[in-house]
Amino acid sequence: MAIGTSDGDPAEHTNLEVGDLVLVTNQSTTDRWPLARVTEIQPGSDGLVRVATIKLQGGCVTRAITNLAKLPIHNDVVLRGHRIILPDALRDKAIDVAHKGYQGICKTKNLLRSKVWFPNLDGLTEEKIKSCLACQATSSIINRAPIITQSRCTEPFKHVDVDYAGPFPNGKYIFLLIDEYSRYPIVDITPSTNFHNLKTILEKTFTTFGIPEQLKSDNGPPFNSQEFTTFLKHYGIRHHKVTPYWPQANGMVERFVKTVKRSLICANLESSKFDSQLNEFLLNFRSTPHSTTTKSPYELLFGRKMRNYLPTQETDNKGQPGQEKHSPLYHNKVPLRIVVRKQNEELLTNTRNR
């Protein structure tokens, strides 16, 4: 079995015994997640380690661990499907990395599941996040209002929702735009909410992602100005106005506003930099599979998985190691998933509020 290099002397890793596992990967991984550490020997830490090693060395596997013995190995990396199996020493680090940006329990677990696997992933993640002081300090009870199902969106950047958050302690505002189809967020820090700054941000967004058919916003400033109306007419965009100061009317972007605010408040409690924390949050949010679409916003928009700090093993559509390809047929299922989710939410919420 090949042994990768590590920070220590390679000679230290020449004596391998049954019960030891060496995971090998390329050294070209980002410094923030040095996968070279995964190449270190994990001496007999658990059944998962012993099974993988026995398989490599041609030993017999007991009946109690037969299923684990079927784990595939690609480039000397032990996999579970397309996900890298992490040894004990790296599990806490993986959870910490996935929790950057202070996403909630479900989002953090979804992000981890998309990249790595280890025993009791859900339980360890929940325990870790529930003990996060910053998350506890910013938790709140959610009261849902009745909802009405809107017309469905069938392709990326056809319908977008916009709003502002702030002002923050640094005097800045955040402009937020979300694509209704992929849930991909565009976030810009701006000194004010005047139309001039808004126009600059939207023009930059349109040149990158194209011109949407519909833009949804509340009816407050600057979205209620004549300049903004003229701007949208110039681009041929339909303006869907919702009731101002009623967050439920523009639920998708308002939920994202709440999530961003919570992340930045957590960052302030831990003395993190505003800009850096926002970037950390966006990296994790854009690469986390959504509970409705089952794909990350980035993957639905760009057709490939987003590379982040967590290690990953590329696979093709058949689940074999290789170059991963995103099937265009999946896009046909996304609108149906969204409609079913909205109908279920409408039924549940309206039943609760009778």
Automatic annotation (TrEMBL):
It is an enzyme of class 2 (transferase). SUPFAM superfamilies: Ribonuclease H-like. This is RNA-directed DNA polymerase. Pfam families: DUF5641, Integrase_H2C2, rve. GO terms for molecular function: nucleic acid binding; RNA-directed DNA polymerase activity. One of its GO terms (biological process) is DNA integration. PROSITE patterns: INTEGRASE. Its EC number is 2.7.7.49. Gene3D superfamilies: 1.10.340.70, Ribonuclease H-like superfamily/Ribonuclease H (3.30.420.10). It comes from Popillia japonica (Japanese beetle). Residues 152-305 form the Integrase catalytic domain.
